[in-house]
């Protein structure tokens, strides 16, 4: 009799566990459906991001040589933050760039090198705590000369992941940005790069190869500074359009539940995939991803001409891939999903969207 009760209880417990798993699956599906409803993404702004991604991604051609699929450099990494530039630079490589550099402070370099032998790490930048007042001028001239040796080789720069806010370092970075602009190198500006640009808008104003990728805080600061008002979510797309056109000729990727893009002429959105997990570093993956797709979109535009701004195409493809990788990682790791898990899913996501033939 006791054995019989034991069996019933075990079956009941099994049933409860099954129901709990099903509940979880139902909740996850609900979250995904709710996300697209609650994001308020206007269906007419939503683009076919997967087709765009396919249209700008190069085929793997045995006739190509190293470098042709893109050389990316991330300017970022200081004493506090070494993860952010690593996430951005390694994502660029995993998506398909041939070479990925990091230009960081001397203290951050050995740490970033130790994360990966794949990255080319330049210990060039200095923070105030390492520089005497009287040496500032000569050091910033030297930093700029060193960076200049490399600059022309890069197909896109990512400015800002883990850069920090040291005033001396930011002055050097604004000089690097001026040189990059003179050489027509595209720049994806993120993290502390946005802090710099928000206080010095002329660094990007009138430069169509600049892409700004603000998160919720960074967007708020930009809106307050440029439009002199608060963020208005009722009229989000229109405000984004005004922001991009007021700064002048830049493209903005506003990150959130849905990602929105504007170059001041049009607004588009991507709401597909995504993950409810909000661990730090996902924006860094996105910046590396946008840099690669922007470089590829420019290659396509140079060959075939372009109807759409390559900066918009780069943002759309970068966002779609990041969101797909985040959703795959979440399927597997659920609450324990970390940025490094998402990076591991970049290759599979790209393969699902655009398989290698
Ligand atoms: N693993 C890593 O290495 C990662 C590193 N990361 C790196 O972290 C950096 C900051 O990016 P984040 O996204 O945390 O900035 P955000 O949400 O605007 O600020 C949150 C709050 O903090 C404050 N605050 C920020 N910086 C400050 C400073 N230097 N000094 C003082 N206050 C500062 C800020 O204040 P406020 O700007 O509003 O004054 C707000 O209240 C950036 O380099 C990013 O790339 C991330 O990519 C994640 C993974
Ligand atoms: N609520 C959300 N739902 C789904 N995806 C989101 C949500 N918020 C942001 N994302 C996605 O996560 C990615 C990173 O955006 P996020 O706002 O976390 O950047 P961030 O704060 O700059 O990140 P980081 O920690 O790297 O600095 C973007 O591709 C965006 O699409
Ligand atoms: Mg960020």
Question: If you had to describe this structure to a student in words, what would you say it looks like?
Answer:
By secondary structure, the chain is α/β, with parallel strands linked by helices. Helix 5 (136-151) packs parallel to helix 6 (167-182), helix 10 (282-304) packs antiparallel against helix 11 and helix 11 crosses helix 13 (346-353). The radius of gyration is 22 Å and the shape is globular. The chain has a nine-stranded mixed beta sheet, sandwiched between helices. The termini are far apart. It is 53% helix and 11% strand. The longest helix has 37 residues, at 2-38. It contains 13 helices and nine strands. The protein folds into two domains: 1-38; 46-353, Ribokinase (UDP-N-acetylmuramoyl-L-alanine:D-glutamate ligase, 3-Layer(aba) Sandwich). The model is unreliable at 1-10 and 13-39 (pLDDT under 50). A hairpin with a 4-residue loop joins strand 8 (259-262) and strand 9. The structure holds ligand NPW, adenosine-5'-triphosphate and magnesium ion (MG). Adenosine-5'-triphosphate binds next to helix 10 and helix 11. One of its GO terms (molecular function) is ATP-dependent NAD(P)H-hydrate dehydratase activity. Keywords: ATP-binding, Lyase, NAD, NADP, Nucleotide-binding, Phosphoprotein. It is an enzyme of class 4 (lyase).
In summary, what is this structure?
The chain has helices at residues 2-38, 49-56, 83-95, 109-115, 136-151, 167-182, 191-199, 216-226, 236-247, 282-304, 310-333, 339-344, 346-353; strands spanning 71-75, 99-105, 120-125, 156-159, 187-189, 210-212, 251-254, 259-262, 267-270.
């Amino acid at each position: 009799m006791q054995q019989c009760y034991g069996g019933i209880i075990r079956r009941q417990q099994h049933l409860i566990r099954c129901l709990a798993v099903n509940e979880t699956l139902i909740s996850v599906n609900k979250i995904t459906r709710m996300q697209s409803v609650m994001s308020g993404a206007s269906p007419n702004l939503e683009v076919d991001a997967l087709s765009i991604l396919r249209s700008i991604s190069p085929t793997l051609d045995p006739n190509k040589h190293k470098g042709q699929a893109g050389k990316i450099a991330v300017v970022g990494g200081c004493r506090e933050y070494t993860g952010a530039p690593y996430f951005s630079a390694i994502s660029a490589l995993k998506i398909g760039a041939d070479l990925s550099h990091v230009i960081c402070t001397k203290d951050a370099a050995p740490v970033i090198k130790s994360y990966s032998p794949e990255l080319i790490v330049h210990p060039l930048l200095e923070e105030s705590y390492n520089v005497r007042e009287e040496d500032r001028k000569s050091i910033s001239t030297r930093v700029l000369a060193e960076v200049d040796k490399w600059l022309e080789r890069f197909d896109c720069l990512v400015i800002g992941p883990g850069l920090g806010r040291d005033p001396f370092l930011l002055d050097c970075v604004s000089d690097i940005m001026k040189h990059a602009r003179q050489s027509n190198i595209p720049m994806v500006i993120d993290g502390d790069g946005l802090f710099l640009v928000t206080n010095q808008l002329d660094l990007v104003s009138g430069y169509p190869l600049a892409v700004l990728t603000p998160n919720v805080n960074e967007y708020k600061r930009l809106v307050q500074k440029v439009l002199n008002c608060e963020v208005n979510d009722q009229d989000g797309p229109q405000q984004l359009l005004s922001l991009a056109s007021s700064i002048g000729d830049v493209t903005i990727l506003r990150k959130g539940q849905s990602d929105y893009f504007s170059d001041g002429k049009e607004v588009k959105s991507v709401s597909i995939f995504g993950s409810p997990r909000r661990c730090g570093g996902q924006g860094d993956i996105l910046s590396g991803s946008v840099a690669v797709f922007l470089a590829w979109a420019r290659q396509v535009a140079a060959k075939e001409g372009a109807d759409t701004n390559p900066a918009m195409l780069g943002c759309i493809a970068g966002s779609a891939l990041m969101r797909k990788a985040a959703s795959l990682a979440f399927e597997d790791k659920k609450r324990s999903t970390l940025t490094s898990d998402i990076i591991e899913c970049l290759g599979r996501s790209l393969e699902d969207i655009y398989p290698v033939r």
